[in-house]
Every structure is written in structure tokens, then in C-alpha cells.
Amino acid sequence: MSLYTIIFSPTGTTKKVADTLASAMAEHHTEIDLSDNNRSFSRTAFTDEDLCILAVPVYGGRVPSTAAGRLKELSGNQAKAVLVAVYGNRAFEDALVELQDLAEEAGFSVVAGVAAVAEHSIVREIAHGRPDEADLQSLRGMGKTIKASLNRSAAPELPGNRPYRVYNPVPIGIEVSENCVRCGSCAAVCPVGAISKEDPSLPASSACISCMRCVAVCPLHARQAEPAKVAFIRQKIGPACQSRKENQLFL
Ligand SMILES: Cc1cc2nc3c(=O)[nH]c(=O)nc-3n(C[C@H](O)[C@H](O)[C@H](O)COP(=O)(O)O)c2cc1C
Asked: I need a surface site. Which of 21, 32, 76, 179 has the fewest CB within 10 A?
């Protein structure tokens, strides 16, 4: 069995969750990065001997559309798939069932689902610092449980609704301060190529998905989400985020 993590992780928490699950299942794994805007995934194919951890963050209770489009290009060929939805302590809503449909359409055989909590990448004081040590320990336990149950034939019952909830993203402007030296670190890793490589200090194009990667990678902290938009989101989702939610495993 070869183990793969197939991840879309703009600010790194989804990767951390996927790596932790993977480390509990095998000594080595190979990563496939769906945030790479410079490659095509149409020749990425697996076999029924492979086990793949498909991990995405939750955006508006859904799978980010960029990740969905790239997942559709993969050829699962009946590889076993563990689905992981990583969310910022508000809700994961229909993300796991949407991920299940995408995985099955791409030819994977779904064996388990995990909903995992991580720091909210827009309102960072929500679930700040998560996954924490307790989260990582629970993920290691889940990885072992999933590994022990790989030969079950039943597909997991995942929570969520079809049709999926409608997500109309409100773009969050990214402010660029005068600290920007146009080094291009942000433009190089933008998952959708929304930042000008010639002048990264210009406003991002309409392709921007507000994933916060450019804010997270800027070495000079010259980029930040528009404070008024963040304040609006904080006010809107704050009440739903107050209680600590825990990771969940679906087998
Ligand atoms: C555009 C956007 C929409 C989000 N929507 C949700 C949501 O519906 N529910 C939630 O709990 N967290 C939501 N979050 C928080 C992310 O799911 C969470 O921070 C995740 O850990 C980010 O993963 P990453 O570090 O791999 O980028 C959203 C974040 C962004 C950027």
C-alpha cells in the first residue's frame, strides 16, 4: 500500500491535519498539492492498492471551488480514500458529502470521513492555535482506527445535505502596506494566480478566493485582510464559534 495526502491548504492547517493522520497510518507518504496553480492534475492517477487522504478546508460549508475543480481531474481507479474537511470551529455543513461526491466521481472508494477543527484563517482568534496537542492526539488515534478498519466494505455515513448549501463568497480585499518590497513570494504561491508577478502590490484580480495564503506567506507582514470585512465576519460568525468543537470520525 502506498499512502498519499492530496491537499488544498492555503494557510497550512489542512496540511498539518493530513500529515498527522498520515503519520499514524504509515511511515512515509507522498504529498500532492492541489494549491499548485502551475500544474495540471489530469495525469495524476492511483491504483486500487493505494490509500489517499483527500483533505480540504471548509469554505462557506462547502469544498473550495478551486479544490473541487482540481479533484475532478484526478483518476482514483478505486484507490481507497479518507476524506478530511478542516474547518474554523464554526461548521462544516455540506463539505464532507460534497467531498464524497467529488471523490466518487473521480473513481475513489471512500472508506472514512474526518471533520477536524483548526484556527479560522480569516478571523484568527477563533480556534487560535488549533490544531493543538489534544487535537493532534485525537487525529493520531483516528488514523490508527481508520487503518484497522480499511477492509470493511461498507461506505461511511457522512453528515450533510444534498443539494449542498449555496455559498456566495463575499470577496475580502487584501490591503498591501508600504512594507511591500514586491519580492513576489505571494504571487509565486497564490493558488489561483490572482496576484501580479510584475507588481504584487497591485490589488489582486477578481480570481482571488480570499484564501489568506498571501497574508500568511508575506515575509514582511505587508498584507492583511481588510479590517472592516474581518470585523463584519467576526460579528456574523462569532456566536456560532464560541464553544470548542472537537474532531469527528465517520466510519
Ligand atoms: C473563504 C473562507 C471561508 C471559510 N468558511 C468557513 C466555514 O464555513 N466554516 C468554518 O468553520 N470555517 C470556515 N473557514 C475557516 C477555514 O475552514 C479554516 O481556517 C481552515 O483551517 C483553513 O485551512 P488552511 O489552513 O489549510 O488554509 C473559512 C475560511 C476561508 C478563507
From this structure: 179
- Single pTM value for the model: 0.98
Nearest atom, ligand 1, residue 210 CA: 1
Distance CA 247, CA 68 (A): 23
Number of neighbouring beta carbons within 10 Å of residue 171:
12
d(CA 64, ligand 1 centre) in Å? 9
Pocket of ligand 1 from Cβ distances under 6 Å: 9-14, 57-61, 86-91, 118-122, 210-212
pLDDT in tens, 93-130: 999 999 999 999 999 999 999 999 999 999 999 999 99
* C-alpha cell of residue 35: 494549491
Domains and CATH numbers, the chain: 2-164+246-250 (3.40.50.360), 174-225 (3.30.70.20)
